[in-house]
Automatic annotation (TrEMBL):
GO molecular function, one term: metal ion binding
Protein name: Clavaminate synthase-like protein
Cofactor (UniProt): Fe(2+)
Domain named TauD/TfdA-like: residues: 22-375
Top-level lineage group: Eukaryota
Protein source organism: Roridomyces roridus
Pfam families: TauD (PF02668)
Family that this chain belongs to: Belongs to the TfdA dioxygenase family.
Transmembrane parts of this sequence: none
Keyword Oxidoreductase attached: yes
Keywords: Dioxygenase, Iron, Metal-binding, Oxidoreductase
């Protein structure tokens, strides 16, 4: 049976012209039991449209794992590794993830206390709150009126040892409803975004690249980002910007010699722009919090030097400079008009191209609001592919 695709409902805040290719609702197939032909259509749609939504889905953890794995059959372990071992307990991700014992690639995430769930007798879940990560926080008074923030813009990736997952699947089993909230940027502009309670916000890495001015496109296609070893432990003492798009530079990161044991060979240096495996387009994909250094290649022979940034290449090792560049490149794409905040319904399944979008947790739940989600992504069997020779010629 052929799948049917329809555009997602965009919020009034969205600039529809920038979302023409972004996001589709999929109907006509059961994502838990796709035949090979249906899977190929879903795969093609995912890479073309970045986010796919299936409504009213019934999906076991085994089926969710199988669906996620189908995008990369050689992948096996969860994106951050199957064993969330002792040495990872200081990672900032540790409190938010509970592994489903039967299918360790699928994680239980959400908010509140969940009992007798998929072999877990009791789990206390915590929806990440910006006060645990941002340097500044919204006042209790404003929060009571519904103000919130993007918690952290990211892709799902260990960025050390394990390759970034191609796809993440997010399945909403328990979706508390409540008044809409207002996501604030708190950067001195009036930027804000009306969101449903507990939305997941997405921005397109393709749009992030496409809207850049020529000198930043040139920089992006010539750059590689070097990530810190054990980045989520490294950044644990640091504080984020109020946009959730990167960190303040205050010298708080853990010194490398205080991290769990690490090896140079497992450190990741990844292109700043990644090729889409189906469309060939470039997606700007960098994790602004985990980045430690940037390598810039010189302009290719014959390129225009006028106005070019780092025309002779560079190796940037000052965190402030690295972060300022990434912010300049990424900030335009999280403007309210470019954010798709998904309005969750119970039994929604969202698949997203983790190598093609950034996403963020948003919102604040009350103590009695129980949110139950299953999340799966798998450390990939390959590394992202950077700009082609033709891309360099076109953009550098
Ligand atoms: Fe995530």
């Amino acid at each position: 049976m052929a799948i049917s695709l329809s555009p997602l409902n965009l919020p009034a805040s969205a600039d529809a012209s920038k979302f023409a290719d972004f996001g589709r609702q999929v109907e006509g197939v059961n994502p838990g039991s796709l035949n090979p032909e249906e899977f190929e259509q879903v795969r093609d749609a995912l890479y073309k449209h970045s986010v796919l939504l299936f409504r009213d889905v019934s999906l076991s953890p085994e089926q969710q794992y199988a669906l996620t794995k189908a995008f990369d059959p050689q992948s096996e372990s969860y994106g951050h590794g199957n064993n969330q071992t002792e040495q990872k307990k200081h990672s900032i991700l540790h409190p938010y993830i509970k592994t489903i014992p039967r299918v360790p690639q699928v994680q239980l995430i959400g908010h509140g206390t969940v009992y007798d769930h998929e072999g877990i007798p009791e789990a206390v879940l915590k929806h990440a709150h910006h006060s645990s990560f941002h340097k500044t926080r919204i006042s209790a008074e404003d929060e009571a009126k519904g103000a919130t923030r993007f918690y952290r813009w990211h892709m799902d990736a260990a960025l050390y040892d394990l390759a970034p997952p191609h796809v993440t699947t997010l399945y909403g089993l328990g979706v508390p409803k409540g008044p809409r909230q207002t996501c604030r940027y708190d950067v001195g502009t009036n930027d804000e975004l009306s969101v449903s309670l507990g939305t997941t916000a997405f921005v397109s890495g393709r749009t992030m690249f496409n809207i850049l001015p020529p000198e930043l496109k040139s920089l992006a296609v010539r750059s590689r980002v070097k990530y810190a070893p054990h980045p989520y432990t490294w950044m644990a003492p640091a504080h984020a910007l109020s946009t959730g798009l990167g960190l303040e530079t205050e010298g708080l990161e853990l010194p490398f010699d205080q991290l769990p044991p690490w090896e140079e060979s497992k450190i990741q240096i990844l292109p700043m722009a990644w090729q889409n495996p189906v469309t060939g387009e470039l997606h700007l994909q960098a994790h602004p919090c985990a980045a430690a250094e940037i390598f810039v290649d010189p302009l290719p022979a014959g390129s225009k030097r006028e106005g070019a940034l780092y025309p002779d290449g560079a190796h940037l090792t000052e965190l402030k400079e690295v972060r300022d560049i990434l912010y300049k490149i990424q900030r335009p794409a999280i403007a309210p008009s470019l954010v798709y905040p998904h309005d969750w319904n119970e039994n929604d399944l969202v698949l997203f191209h983790n190598r093609g979008v950034l996403h963020s947790i948003v919102g604040v739940f009350g103590p009695d609001q129980v949110r139950i989600f299953h999340q799966c992504n798998l450390a990939a069997s390959d590394l992202p592919v950077g700009p082609s020779a033709a891309d360099i010629e076109k953009w550098a």
